[in-house]
Amino acid sequence: MDRDRHDDVTSARDAVVAGRTTLGIELGSTNIKACLVGPDSRTIAVGSFTWENQFVDRVWTYSLDAVHEGLRGAFAALAADVRERYGVPLTAVGGLGVSAMMHGYLAFDAAGDLLVPFRTWRNTSTGQAAAELTRALEFNVPLRWSVAHLYQAMLDEEPHVPQVAFLTTLAGYVHWRLTGERVLGVGDASGMFPVDASTGDYDEARLAAFDALAAARGTAAPARASLRAPLRALLPSVLPAGAAAGRLTPEGAALLDPTGTFAAGVPLCPPEGDAGTGMVATNAVAPRTGNVSAGTSIFAMVVLEKALAAVHPEIDVVTTPSGDPVAMVHCNNGASELGAWAQVFEQFARALGVEAGQGAVFAALLGAALDGDPDGGGLLAYNYLSGETITGLDEGRPLLVRTPGSRLTLANFARTQVCSVFATLALGMRTLAAEGVAVDALLAHGGLFRTPGVAQRLLAAAVDAPVAVAATAGEGGAWGVAVLAAYTAAVADGEERALAAWLDEHVFADALTVVARPEAADVAGMGAYLERYTAGLSIEHAAVAAIH
């Protein structure tokens, strides 16, 4: 082992033993990741647990048992990694943070029991509620927001509604189990109900408007559709980045580590959504910055300099973890269909007697995409495994469509699949451009960008803006929330810099970043592809209607 490597290991081991680390845990769509970060903000150990959502009774869900199992599995993998790397047990950390998929519906009664299975962000059954709330609140309420799920349950006269005593998100639920505190970071809270950027709390006027709407609904069907408390009483308290958010209880420590090795008492930062931790991971929390996160879903976040002029159904207005307003273009469907095709090619290679892991297959597909025609050779792909609000679909049917004159090659197939990942996002970003929203560069993160120069280049073409990928971008939201935990610890020690300045000067001062600028041929090709994509949406609608 060379001296620098030895010094790094020794330094990391000392930090682990002294508890001068922070731990971030993020519950993503397909993976629960635990990330241990040292005092210099570098990752020193990781652990993960693979899981998958279930489609039960036409609802996308995860069981709470799966949540608990996944937390234990990810933590156990992390602890094993620490022991293998440094030869010491993981007994304590200096701070802890939890992040998870935003939005959705977790409703509990007064005893703390779950009333209905967790309804994730992926469900699109709240169209009537979202439309009525958008009109009543004069604010775009997306289908996946918690308040849309609650109001849809009222419209559907679901019998559990009068028993609702507490609503939260997945990150909020895990934080509650770890600390006993019913709180939420402002970024995640802004996906439950609109937040007033001037106060950093739920919008009081809109809370009153919702309560009036709910009261009128209750008068119409009091036995089955009435809430027994104002909405604010049902929601978690809102906290900004840097705020103290409780400490790990003995019960919370046992949930993470049933062996009893990990000690209680660790301070926690406010729990955040994956959008907020993605902003931190890419250092995109200041005005005129933005980021794109590509995974099971794909979304862009642009920090606003001023409020949007109009309400747009394809644009969510949420906040950074510090409470600054953000325009969010969220697409339910990201890279899952591309991943499914990668599995097919992996199986094909195996049938030929060649063992190629999915990582190698992904790299080969992405590499081939650069050799494809700029417009995909006339091919058309829809990656819709679930519904998509921006294009008006309640359900999805993945499709590959071509004409007899199209050029079906591996390169065009691969390019078309990558274009399909970014197509719906590009349509939403056009709305922001029409509003005059300026962004200096988008910072991209997610596994799709680990293969250098491919997805980044095609995303730049799709949004017609520079796209940067930082060396830290591959760390993801678990790293981002570990950094937020470190910021909370710094504030407790007297740190006075705002989050954006602290990130610039403490975390990203020496970060390496690669920028891809849109190339004219790629932009023109993507433009032609998007025209074909928009015209072909009627095919997708017909497929949903015809194939059940």
UniProtKB/TrEMBL annotation:
The keyword Zinc-finger does not apply. GO terms for biological process: D-xylose metabolic process. The keyword Transferase applies. Keywords: Carbohydrate metabolism, Kinase, Transferase, Xylose metabolism. Gene3D superfamilies: 3.30.420.40. Residues 291-488 form the Carbohydrate kinase FGGY C-terminal domain. GO terms for molecular function: kinase activity. Residues 22-254 form the Carbohydrate kinase FGGY N-terminal domain. Pfam families: FGGY_C, FGGY_N. It comes from the Bacteria. Belongs to the FGGY kinase family. PANTHER family: SUGAR KINASE, XYLULOSE KINASE. This is ATPase. It comes from Xylanimonas allomyrinae.
